[in-house]
Amino acid sequence: MDGPTVPVTAEVAPHPGHGAVPGAVDHTSDAAWDPRQYVVFAGHRGRPFADLLAQVDARDPRLVIDLGCGPGELTLGLTQRWPGARVIGVDSSPEMLRKARDLDVDGRVEWVEAAAEDWDPTGSGGPIDVLITNATLQWVPSHLRLIPSWLERLAPGGTFAMQVPSNFDAPSHRLMREVAARHPRADDLRPGLDRAQAVARPETYASLLLDLTPDVDVWQTTYEHVLPAQAGGPHPVLEWVRGTGLRPVLGVLDDEERDAFVADYESELERAYPRRPFGVLFPFTRTFAVARTRRQRAPGPGKTEVSAR
Prior knowledge:
Number of helices: 11
Order of helices and strands: EHHEHEHEEHEHHHEHHHE
Shape: globular
Strand content: 15-25%
Strand order of the largest sheet: 1-7-8-6-5-2-3-4
Structural class: alpha/beta
Helix content: 25-40%
Radius of gyration: 20 Å
Distance between the termini: 34 Å
Number of strands: 8
């Protein structure tokens, strides 16, 4: 186990009212995804997926899509929950998909290489009953435009479920931007760090989805991750972001520049997230949204189909 995680939740009422880096949604555009680094904190990263899936009440779906499936462990769990479903995992990283295929010893999942912006849901072979995208859309600047087109491909009564990190103002990311801003190659580093603009506020997702279907849940959860920290070892928050948010920076710099950047950044992390006897507390906020489309049958006399929780 990766250590305890304490969720602190804050509900956001759904009312009208950010898997590639901006400008190049291919995960491999700046630095290849490393499945080994990504799964270092697999237990912590898997918890939000489980919390998202808990709000998906599909009984017997025929077609389930995991958009931005990564190394595949969580996607394989979908085949256990819905053993009769056809499950497709989509990701733009060949490294991640290679790991996923190695794990899928029974060949239960169809693995498709495609970036979210380029993925064509019509090629899935039928209406989609469940479309899940977990910790992917922050890499897709145009995802607010894409979501309506994805919901159009859902079967009647189908479910769209998404989760995105919403911690871009936390010290882990703020300090990354500050160290990059004072770096001699700041202009080269800035594009990869501007992706925070891709993640919208919870009310924006709620408003977007409620314009498409009345049955919508949107909420945020802050996870108080407890990361193990070994004396003299790398800072655990540094190891966390190496697998995700730091990739665009590391992919731009050469070895010498990379080492200098990491040393500067890590010294800032040591102050922001001090090591304690139990490890390091790492609060991490995530935004979730689940939308269910209408079923085909019309409501009877005096009844309505509208359902908003």
